[in-house]
Amino acid sequence: MHSQPRLDLNPLRETAPPVASGGILCGVVLAGGEGVGLRSLARRIWGDDRPKQYVPLLERRTLLRQTLDRVALGIPSARTAVVTLRRDRFAF
C-alpha cells in the first residue's frame, strides 16, 4: 500500500534554499550591543550616544541596514529576525 504524499501548504518552502536538515533557512541578526567602541565617533557625527548599529558611517545606510541588506541577498527579510536591546526596539 502506497501512502499519498503530504500536501505542504507552506509557501516559503518552495522558494527557500534547503538546509542540511531539510528545513528552511532563516536569518538572525544580533544587534544588541552597547556600541561603546564607536560611541565617541557617533557623538561627534550625530551629537548623541546612539549604538553603532544605528549609525551611518561610510554611507547613508546604518550599519544595521547594511547588515540586513547583505542577509537579504540569501534569505528573505520575512524570515530574518533582529535581536536587539529592549530600549532600542523602536530605533529602526
Task: Please describe what this structure looks like.
- With 92 residues, the protein is α+β, with helices and mostly antiparallel strands.
- The chain has one domain (22-88).
- It has helices at 12-15, 39-46, 63-71; strands at residues 27-30, 80-83.
- The chain has a two-stranded parallel sheet with strand order 1-2.
- The mean pLDDT is 77.
Q: Could you give a short description of this structure?
A:
About 25% of the residues lie in helices and about 10% in strands.
From the spread of the alpha carbons, the general shape counts as elongated
Which residues sit in consecutive blocks of at least 5 with pLDDT less than 50?
none
N-to-C SSE series?
HEHHE
Indicate the percent of residues in helices.
Answer: 10-25%
- Largest sheet, strands/sense/barrel: 2 strands, parallel
In percent terms, what proportion of residues is strand? 5-15%
Radius of gyration: 19 Å
Number of domains: 1
Instruction: Please give the order of strands in the largest beta sheet.
Output: 1-2
Average per-residue pLDDT, rounded, comes to 77
Number of helices: 3
